[in-house]
């Protein structure tokens, strides 16, 4: 009979647990029964001995009344069923009998009563063993019921634990073993258990990794071996083939077979395809010094090395060279040679000439295109440098040539307001004030454009920077500019990172100034600067509880001259956040924002090269 693992384990556990327990219970019950029966027998004898001693005087004196108290005392034991005292001559002397007490087996002990060496009477005590055995039988019944309950509950508990802790993991191990057998090695085996089966599963994962790596290496080696075997088979088949069959096979292709004598620098055999290759008849190929005459002078050193230096036997030698055709054309060939010793030990060469002119022509064209591409890149680089110079010239023109007329307009407008104010009505003064504000805004725009263009050309020089100290300096300047404002400032201390000190100060200046500006109309204004972890990396943030913005237009925040608030409500030209984004990008970081209309905004930015204690 074949048992499943589940059944075999349950039977083994039940047998190991129940059989010893039942056997021990049976031995214990039997021992208790024997002990009780022994105690009963000893009590029986002791009571009988007491009656024998106690009845000597009453029997000797023929006084039954003196023996009744002792008899009544003995009958107080509920195990005593009957007590009989017989006189040797008169017969029944005293007797008590309560047959209703009898339970189980009745035990009788008769004993003679002696006085002065004579038998004067006889005492008989009858005692039952039912009460003692009843407790044993009840204990037996309790043990049987307990064993039955244990037998009913234990398999379920054993099966539950066995299923969850052994069988299910074993089934998973079997499934993963089948996957290993089927070479399904791409998915890892994840085992988090630390028991023996978990260790086995982790070992199976190590085996999977090893097999995965081994199969990859074997597959790669197999491809290399197949290629090497294929090449060796071709060479062996060519060497074993007869000369005629070899020639017919080779001469029917465009590959030119050849043999040469190195000492004479001439071919001893050349395939008939050679006439087509260079246009010379075969007898010219066999002439002495053919290679020195018809090999391109720039490639002759390759042939010198092949024909003059000792080469390993049966080791193919390959190199590319140019042969000169009959019409002064250059034919690129791949020369393949092998050293073959003859019976006398002299070196001979044999191999193939393969026409590679088409491939070399393509390579030359590719090199030409590559050189042309390099020239084109150099031209574009020069054009880019010229464009940068033009941009610098334009920036200079903007910063100098445009400022003069703006200053003139602003200055004359101020003169009109100061010297001719009494000649102008309210509308005229308002027009002049609007002209001055427009020129000042134009000047600010020019400054912002110049700053934005400088950010793309300035050199980044990073060093450890304490952002907390910079933020404190900036906010102190803002507080001194508006001392009447009450703003709660929360700055996380000792935020150190790697950055360009000047540029990162400009970025923080813009972010904190925006937070200061957009909390101007908030009763309990609050500005925070700190650091947090987002998606596994450190990020700094500037947050406020000011005007906020609609996330629908978040993509416009960092564009130049993009504003999400009315200029009359909050002043500005929309360049500050564009400058911040340029600075963060120059540090290879990123910046993004989150906000809610009327509930504040938070700007987050990362600086990848942060010091270890930056946000600890």
Can you summarize this structure?
This protein has about 625 residues and is α+β, with helices and mostly antiparallel strands. It is built from 16 helices and 16 strands. Mean pLDDT is about 80; it is low at about 610-615.
Helicity, as a percent range? 40-55%
Strand content: 15-25%
What integer is the average pLDDT?
78
Strand order of the largest sheet: 6-5-9-8-7
Describe the protein in words.
The chain is of the alpha+beta class and 616 residues long. Helices cover 54% and strands 19% of the residues. It has 16 helices and 16 strands. The chain has helices at 5-54, 56-61, 64-75, 130-181, 196-240, 243-251, 274-278, 282-285, 290-294, 300-308, 357-400, 403-419, 426-455, 467-481, 501-518, 576-586, and strands at residues 80-87, 91-97, 106-115, 118-128, 256-261, 266-270, 317-324, 330-341, 347-355, 463-466, 488-491, 496-499, 526-534, 537-544, 591-596, 600-605. The longest helix has 52 residues, at 130-181. The chain is flat. The chain starts with a helix and ends in an 11-residue tail after the last strand.
Task: List its salient traits.
616 residues; alpha+beta; 5-stranded antiparallel β-sheet; 5-stranded mixed β-sheet; 16 helices; 54% helix; 19% strand; flat; disordered C terminus
Present the secondary structure layout.
Layout lengths: L4 H50 L1 H6 L2 H12 L4 E8 L3 E7 L8 E10 L2 E11 L1 H52 L14 H45 L2 H9 L4 E6 L4 E5 L3 H5 L3 H4 L4 H5 L5 H9 L8 E8 L5 E12 L5 E9 L1 H44 L2 H17 L6 H30 L7 E4 H15 L6 E4 L4 E4 L1 H18 L7 E9 L2 E8 L31 H11 L4 E6 L3 E6 L11
Parallel strand pairs: 11-13
Antiparallel strand pairs: 1-2, 1-4, 3-4, 5-6, 5-9, 7-8, 8-9, 10-12, 13-14, 14-16, 15-16
